[in-house]
Backbone:
């Protein structure tokens, strides 16, 4: 049912405009006019209490008066009338509702928005908005928005959380030469969100790539799942990544903006290509729309100018696809397609004398070589060549290369004046992405490569670690115990018991209530041991003199027991002391840290890094949305700057990265399982030993929701 | 004399074109045609052995036949005839020579190029090229190049090492709307180089900012000095910063391309703003040409759309000018210039309803506030506003703000379609930099701020540390001794003696040749001590068992002496062992590293970083061209990612950053003094103690040129 309603919302056979008007300047006028100008072929029903006809269409007083069950109702009446009107739509059998009207949750009016959602769900309708521009579709000639025109036709779809930006970008499609079949405005996302539309577009024949402008989201996890499954590349620009920007985003859409790092991690896991700014979003969209992804790392650059060749080479390294020299035998052949003083190395410099033929032959030869995975063609406008002819040469070569173009992308940069700009536009019109700067072309190609790499890895939510039987129940009972005693944090002993339930290798830790108990426990564990005060009132145990390490015998246990108690009392005479933790002393290893936090959009998120100075000063950490697979646990270890320390730097043996990956996977499963219970947690430090020797979680912390 | 010749080269009253031709397609034709089309008002003298008249000008068989002393001779004859022709120019009293012809050092033909330089110097002429496009100047109506047109007029100058790129960018000035008064092609830089032109432009009334495209340079140090002194901002794009790219640059111009880090350091020290790509070079040039620099950190953003406001906020943080909220009292007033649902916080969101008046009033109010140091104005094209009217509102506000515009920069971004593009062009024509993406506008403003910060710091080559009297002589005699014994590396003891001569606090180290000597020296220094083998044949002393630390008494000295000798003999029976170094054992401190290397463009370059893993794994280091001041020594300590460790992280006392800055300054003076002798050096580790407690250089290494 909801699928059907989405179809009716996005591919309607009939559109009612509630709040339609004959007065130019009103949104209700603009929407009907837009439907007319766009030459929408379905039925158009203006709804207006007083008017009989609007812009050539018979008008109806209410939605209920229309003689058919309308697929899409576009609503642009004042906010206070909207809920009743939505109810009327439901009664009239409307499929989808698009509420342009603002004045709902974005200004704090949550109640009305919730009421609308309730009505929509009750009738099985779907709702876009409120607070939106509308939807536009070239293939359906449907402009159900107050934007004055449909976008430049193309095979991408753009979903924007900001309506103001979308209307500007709609006009911008013509200026930038990047075509779209569909534009969607999301607004407050009371019902339909990014995930819904991405999922729906995956089945849309008119779309081959999806661009997103995101301010924030609530159900990040479903978004990730949908993007992972999407057969069509998704490119996203996330705004509100600065501390200050996040605040502005929140005030703008009433949406929750997450941290840059969390979105970055979520995009990586979901295989979403991240854009850096608006131009980059368009540049990537153009490339993904017109070209296949790049299946290997070998980028070939063909240029008529050394300078732009070197600039492109710098860009390739910067964007993660560093250049390699063309194999010698190919260089020998490539030399046939340029003057003597050209260079066949890569960048292939066919010199400033190169015209249509020089470009055509060198490119055709290059594209046919198995070695070549992708191609950047650069042209510096000269006095003796004609940009449009060069463009033709490039086009001819690409056509001649035939089926290899199904898996080898090409991008072009022309540096020059108006003639070059014309040639760039002609290339785009003929299916070849083209730009005004080598950096943009290489950046776009790197996006095609980056996407393919993410697809190859296919890590993320698949193959997650399974928790041991009973782990969840055991953890829950410990948590319940703490809650019952009024605490929202577990003690170290409790936290380690939760960790242990999920199979984490924690240092053996028991809670002694008397000296004798402590001695007995110490003997059980085996000397040396560590002893620590356990009290919900003493968070910084070391500062309170509540920790004694390297306790080697029974007498030392007794001495330490007394000393810790004395120190704790002195530190806080009213502290509630549960006892003294008697704990296995882990051998020294490489200190790492695992932690989790709860992100408003994505739920439990895992952080991994090296301990001590690395995390505190260098902030050398990486994030992933829970749960993550063991494969991704390995990958996370390679994502930090200090990765080489784990691989065995400075003559040291490699660390046990397998064991670490296993810990990461289990930890992430634990945090995902317990997402309704745990707000924050960490395992800090974890001692990581050399390959084959495993690890130990030395300290544990869990803060409850 | 050379100054005068440069004037004649760049502002000629007469131009001879040697190799002028009546045949279209020839460069000698293109140059005369370009002079004509540009409406050059000085005398034009085609030089051609056979023709009597070329393109309306009387032709002369040789330069000597021209009836006046020509200021500029443009040469485009085959390479083999060039030297004799230059000689003839000298005899004829030519002032400056511009050699378009290629086929010199860029293809390995150094001899001919050197011969030309010798001739030029002998006659006191100046030479541009060879292998260039030529020079272009709007204010003189001089197009002495084979580019078909003068650039879009403006107040910048562009100096490009690549002629091919320059001709393309010349056409691009119209497309991009960025105007230039002058374009220079540098080619092989046999004589005139970047420094010469930047210095000359500093006195040019028609230029207010200078853009550079750099592939490599030979005299980087003079370039830095000239840029430091330049009253006009210099913006540079350096190509060939990737490993692969550097190789390509070398093969392209025969020039030496340095590492990205060294150029980055040199630019910082010289106050040069670095561009990331061609578009960025143009974006920055436009901003510097049209706007003052930004004197403080407070950026105000005025926008009609929340989305672009947040994007700009993200960019501001990314580019180092993070946004702050407008002070409360200003927010209250600002609120008068927008609808109720707008936001006066910053970004100031005057809402999608804002037209000419909304923009004009809010901007005018904002610009007048002392709090505001710079302004970004954003506009998202809407259905109800006219981009050109918004542009007018912005323009009116800027005019009304009056003299504050002498020190407050503004930049604009319009996101939209063709109408927005027209408005952008109109704004540029009216002196306001404008772009198609908020990111570009904020990036340009950040360049204006970054430049002002570099000017405020004014650190670098000034206030360098003075070496102690006799230091240079002493160092030289130690180096001479090593060279005389056929070594190109100093021993540790020798290197420390050089360091000590320059006032560096090294661990006391003496060379013992017998056990008894070692004991006596150890007593002198005071226990504990360290003992190390000293041999030019044993570089890795520890691997050879050649180091014993923590030697505490006479007997241990004797034991260690024997052991080290035995180990050394076993390691390499043929090693030439100079003796055993007896060395003060420095207390443990924060390990840092200082090193120097010799860059082909900039000479001795200093590296500073934290020791051990930080330098080896994280590569957390920073560079500066020697010599550097103590102030810059302090700054370098803040440039590494681990800077907080030096400031006192995790409860530790701050390190002695003053002592470290002093060491950096002295070390850099030493390396600058000894630049003809020392190729590489390091002080590694240096033990840096807490504030007030100084440091110790524990190990020293010097490799000779």
Residues:
């Amino acid at each position: 049912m909801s699928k059907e309603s989405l179809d009716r919302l996005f591919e309607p056979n009939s559109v009612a405009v509630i709040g339609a008007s004959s007065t130019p300047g009103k949104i209700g006028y603009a929407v009907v006019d837009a439907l007319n100008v766009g030459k929408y072929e379905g039925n158009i029903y203006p709804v207006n209490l007083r008017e009989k006809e609007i812009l050539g269409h018979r008008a109806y007083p209410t939605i209920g008066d229309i003689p058919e069950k309308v697929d899409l109702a576009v609503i642009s009446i004042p906010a206070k009338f909207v809920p009743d009107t939505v109810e009327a739509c439901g009664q009239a059998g409307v499929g989808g509702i698009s509420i342009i009207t603002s004045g709902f949750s974005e200004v704090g009016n949550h109640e009305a928005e919730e009421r609308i959602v309730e009505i929509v769900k009750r009738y099985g309708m779907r709702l876009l908005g409120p607070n939106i521009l509308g939807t536009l579709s070239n293939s359906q000639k449907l402009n159900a928005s107050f934007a004055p025109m449909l976008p430049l036709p193309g095979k991408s779809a753009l979903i924007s959380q900001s309506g103001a930006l979308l209307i500007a970008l709609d006009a911008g499609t013509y200026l930038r030469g990047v075509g779209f079949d569909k534009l969607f405005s999301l607004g407050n996302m009371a019902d339909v969100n990014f995930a819904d539309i991405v999922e729906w577009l995956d089945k849309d024949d008119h779309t081959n790539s999806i661009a997103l402008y995101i301010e924030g989201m609530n159900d990040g996890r479903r978004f990730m799942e949908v993007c992972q499954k999407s057969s069509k590349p998704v490119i996203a620009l996330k705004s509100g990544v600065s501390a200050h920007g996040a605040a502005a985003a929140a005030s703008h859409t009433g949406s929750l903006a997450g941290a840059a790092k969390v979105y970055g991690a979520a995009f990586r896991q979901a295989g979403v290509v991240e854009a850096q700014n608006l131009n980059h979003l368009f540049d990537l969209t153009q490339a993904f729309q017109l070209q296949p992804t790049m299946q290997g790392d070998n980028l070939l650059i063909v240029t008529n100018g050394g300078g732009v060749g070197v600039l492109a080479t710098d860009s390739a390294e910067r964007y993660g696809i560093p250049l390699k020299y063309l194999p010698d035998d190919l260089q020998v052949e490539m030399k046939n397609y340029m003057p003597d003083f050209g260079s066949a190395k890569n960048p292939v410099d066919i010199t400033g004398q190169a015209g249509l033929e020089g470009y055509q032959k060198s490119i055709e030869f290059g594209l046919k070589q198995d070695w070549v995975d992708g191609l950047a063609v650069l042209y510096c406008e000269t006095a003796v060549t004609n940009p449009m002819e060069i463009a033709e040469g490039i086009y001819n070569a690409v056509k001649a290369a035939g089926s290899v173009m199904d898996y080898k992308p090409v991008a072009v940069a022309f540096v020059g004046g108006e003639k070059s700009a014309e040639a760039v536009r002609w290339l785009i019109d003929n299916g070849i992405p083209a730009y005004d700067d080598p950096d943009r072309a290489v950046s776009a190609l790197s996006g095609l490569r980056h996407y393919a790499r993410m697809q190859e890895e296919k890590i993320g939510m698949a193959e997650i670690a399974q928790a041991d039987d009973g782990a969840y129940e055991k953890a829950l009972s410990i948590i319940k115990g703490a809650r019952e005693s009024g605490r929202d944090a577990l003690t170290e002993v409790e936290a380690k018991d939760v960790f242990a339930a999920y199979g984490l290798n924690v240092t053996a830790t028991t809670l002694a209530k008397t000296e004798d108990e402590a001695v007995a426990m110490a003997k059980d564990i085996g000397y040396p041991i560590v002893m620590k005060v356990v009290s919900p009132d003493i968070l910084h145990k070391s500062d309170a003199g509540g920790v004694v390490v390297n306790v080697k015998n029974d007498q030392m246990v007794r001495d330490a027991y007394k000393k810790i108690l004395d120190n704790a009392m002195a530190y806080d005479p009213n502290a509630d002391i549960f006892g003294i933790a008697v704990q296995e002393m882990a051998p020294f290893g490489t200190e790492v840290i695992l932690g989790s936090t709860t992100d408003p959009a994505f739920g439990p998120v895992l952080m991994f890094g090296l301990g001590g100075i690395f995390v505190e000063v260098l902030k050398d950490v990486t994030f992933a949305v829970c749960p993550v697979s063991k494969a991704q646990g390995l990958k996370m270890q390679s994502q930090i700057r200090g990765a080489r320390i784990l691989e065995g730097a400075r003559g040291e043996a490699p660390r046990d990265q397998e064991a670490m990956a296993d810990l990461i996977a289990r930890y992430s499963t634990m945090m995902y399982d317990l997402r309704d219970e745990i707000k924050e947690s960490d395992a800090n430090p974890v001692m990581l030993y050399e390959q084959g020797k495993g690890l130990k979680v030395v300290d544990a912390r869990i803060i409850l929701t």
The first strand of chain A starts at residue 14 and ends at 18.
